[in-house]
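User: quick one, sequence for these tokens?
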């Protein structure tokens, strides 16, 4: 009678392989859970936090303006995706028009300049860095968001605010009032600006006035380095058929495109239509 031989070595080898496979599966599952948590944090939690903070800032500005507190010697109160250009050491991702750009000029004798209120050319103090000093309202998108000076990510954009490009015009002033905002995450205020159409209203409220711009043109895609779109007379340096040739009172919105990438920039331009005191 033959006695069966048990190969202990082969059994131990199979047990070791099974243990390695099990450990590998546990590592993959753990990594998957971590990635899901990171995605949830970026797509949900950052939006929730930024939107709540932005709404509170809008309310704070409205209360401050309603109380009539005004900083001596200037208009601005005490409230708290971009195109590449000249950088500033205080901002992580700050840019303006090129160094060779002319200063904002007064419009000529065109229709836009005749309709623009004289108050629009009144000098104003520059707001402090990262200071929220205006409110942008876009009725078509149901958007009401604070505007802060500068376009740094930690100081402005990641708070859910819209950032004002330093060196560009202020609301209602001659030249180009240029703004940047996130397309995705951190409140994503500019997620749907691709839905804006010619004639849509863009309202900018400051302590002293409400400026109404009207959407006029858009550029669906350009390079991040296309600084021409935020010049005093905005005109793309990449797609030269897009933009303007005459001085005026412009508003520019910029954000990243396509969604969830920062490869290109989407641009929307508006023109000042009216101004009324608060």
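Assistant:
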């Amino acid at each position: 009678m033959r006695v069966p031989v048990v190969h202990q070595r082969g059994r131990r080898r199979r047990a070791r392989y099974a243990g390695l496979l099990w450990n590998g599966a546990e590592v993959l599952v753990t990594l998957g859970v971590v990635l899901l948590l990171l995605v949830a944090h970026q797509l949900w939690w950052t939006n929730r936090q930024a939107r709540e903070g932005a709404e509170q800032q809008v309310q704070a500005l409205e209360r401050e303006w309603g109380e009539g507190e005004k900083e001596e010697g200037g208009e601005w109160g005490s409230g708290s995706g971009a195109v590449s250009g000249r950088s500033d050491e205080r901002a992580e991702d700050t840019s303006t028009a090129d160094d060779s750009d002319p200063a904002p000029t007064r419009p000529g004798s065109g229709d836009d300049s005749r309709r623009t209120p004289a108050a629009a050319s009144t000098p104003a103090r520059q707001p402090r860095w990262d200071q929220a000093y205006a409110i942008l309202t876009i009725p078509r998108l149901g958007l009401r968001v604070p505007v802060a000076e500068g376009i740094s990510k930690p100081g402005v954009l990641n708070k859910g605010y819209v950032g004002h490009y330093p060196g560009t015009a202020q609301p209602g002033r001659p030249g180009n009032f240029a703004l940047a905002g996130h397309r995705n995450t951190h409140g994503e205020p500019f997620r749907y600006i691709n839905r804006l159409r010619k004639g849509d209203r863009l309202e900018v409220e400051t302590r002293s006035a409400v400026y109404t711009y009207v959407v006029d043109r858009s550029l669906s895609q350009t390079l991040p380095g296309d600084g021409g779109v935020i010049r005093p007379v905005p005109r793309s340096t990449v797609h030269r058929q897009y933009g303007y040739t005459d001085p005026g009172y412009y508003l520019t919105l910029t954000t990243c495109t396509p969604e969830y990438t920062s490869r290109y920039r989407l641009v929307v331009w508006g023109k000042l239509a009216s101004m009324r005191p608060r």
